[in-house]
Amino acid sequence: MTIARRAALALPFLAAPAIARAQSTWRPTQPVRIVVPAAPAGTSDIAGRLVGAHLQQAWGVNVVVENRSGAGGIIGTQEVLRAPADGHTILSGNIGPQAIAYSLFRNLPFRPEQFQPVAGVVKGPNVLVVHPSVPANSLPELVAHLKRNPGRLSYGSPGVGQSPHLTGVWFNQATGTEAIHIPYRGAGPAMVELVAGNIQYMWDNLSSGIQQVRAGTVRALAVSSAERNAELPDLPAARETMPELAQFDVNTWFGMFYSSAVPNAATQALNEAMRAMDATDAMKARLVQMGGVSLYGSVPDFTAFVQAEIVKWRAVIQREGLQLDAT
Question: What residue stretch is flagged as signal peptide (predicted)?
Answer without folding.
Answer: 1-22
